[in-house]
Amino acid sequence: MSTPVSQADVEVLVVGCGPVGALTANLLGRRGVTTLVVESSLEPHGQPRAFSCDDEALRIYQQAGLLAEVRDGMRSAGLVDYTDGAGRPFAQITLSDVDFGLGYPPLQFFDQPRLEQALRAGLGRFPHVELRLGVALEALHADADGVTARLRDLTGGRTRQVRARYVLGCDGARSTTRALAGIELRGSKYEEPWLAVSGDLPPDAVRLDRTRFVCDWRRPAFVSPAADGGYRLEFMLRAGETAAQVEQPAAVAELVAPYVDPQRFQVRRAAVYTFNHLVAERWRAGRVFLLGDAAHQMPPFMGQGLCSGLRDAVNLVWKLDLVLGGRAGEPLLDTYEQERRPHTEEMARITVQVGRIFLARSRAGAKLRDVVLRGVQLVPRVRRFVRRFEFKPLPVHRRGWHVGGRPAGTMFPQPQVAVAGGVGTVPLDEVLGDGFAVVGPAVGPAVAADPGWRGLPVRFVRVCAAGSAPGVFDGDYREVADVDGRLAQWFARHGAGLAVLRPDRFVYAVAAEGAPSEPLSRTLAAALAADGRGEAVRPVVRG
Hints:
The protein has about 550 residues and is of the alpha+beta class. The chain is about 25% helix and about 25% strand. The protein is built from 15 helices and 30 strands. The strands form five sheets. Strands 1, 2, 3, 9, 10, 11, 12, 20 and 21 form a nine-stranded mixed sheet that branches. Strands 23, 24, 25, 26, 27, 28, 29 and 30 form an eight-stranded mixed sheet that branches. The protein is globular, with a radius of gyration of 25 Å. The protein starts with a strand and ends in a 14-residue tail after the last helix. The N terminus is likely disordered.
């Protein structure tokens, strides 16, 4: 028996409440979007599967207002070794020396059950966001105005129809949303199974206290101290080995013994898995969008699978908010895949290349790899490229919703800044707010008073020189002191006096030093107003 559907139950239906779905719902909640989240499982997954994130991910958690909650218990990795089977390094990444300018360390380890708990608890802040567990998506029917979804309560069997303006499929690699939307996956599957082991132990039971890729051609492995005093290890299975064999406690103990004391290592999870390199042929079908593993899957060698899903969420949510509120046209949503797909595919490509180094499967191939990599790193520029993690793709949109060449389409830095009346410093994003921001040394009351900005969701932030005392901190005009000079360096490098930042902190456009801001305000207003038919978008009132 089905419950009749109303004309507009929710603005957004999120399918799946893993880390990507829960983060997406929190971002929607902060923007006042009425949201229903459904998750087929009755309990949190409870298993430490994903376990690493980067500085971009932490900045996204900050935008969701949950940084302190999710960061509690995380562990930073200061050094990553790539060694041969005898433990001799042939490459190192000195992450303690790496700063991509986003405000956080480049690699953090977390506990997935704890992360999911924090993200789900964050939904309680929003009365307009509802989470229903034990509810599965069964059918979708889209029309010009929205999507009707049939949901089944898996405990009682009752079905219900829900009407949403948009549906976001965050339901993982085996996405029901993707299947119902008729979207295929393209790519390849890795046949080699891996054993993932997670557990807890006292500090003096750790035998290798660093992050290491063990590039042993006989059995490649990854080992690292993890969040909350835990340890994570992964081992490739050899030909002829089965999951039933390697998951046995005695087999696990033998594998982990070089790195931890197996007698004092309490295993929480030991499971065999395989991974894929797959991308959905399209990430949108009308009013249905795919995010995270539902849209793309990549090997784990750079820890970017979850991070890529978080990037999807922060890219799409602010665009949905503007469209739902009648402040932007529907074509804005087309830029989600246009911007996210190239970066995701590049990240996956680099990950595969790193995997080829890691997974040399013959003695001769491994020896050649070791000799070549040790040799090329005698060149200082190559050594820096490796040690400073410069092979990681930067957050850049080569095409998308921005104006002009670089720095438009790049992520704006987030240094610490001082504010009027404040004690100490705060991360820049805490001053910028949730909407657009006009930032720079050329920003002042005259720029903020430009009538072209009127009606746009914009905050103005003047950047004062290091050592100066910022004055105004009121409403949508604020001043900050550039305490370490990083913002001054950025504007000088690009010859800019101000930058218009999108809500996801990518640069929309810049004005040259001394140039007026009026063209930028007109350009932004026109870009938001376009609805694809050359007509202005009329704001709507949300119920």
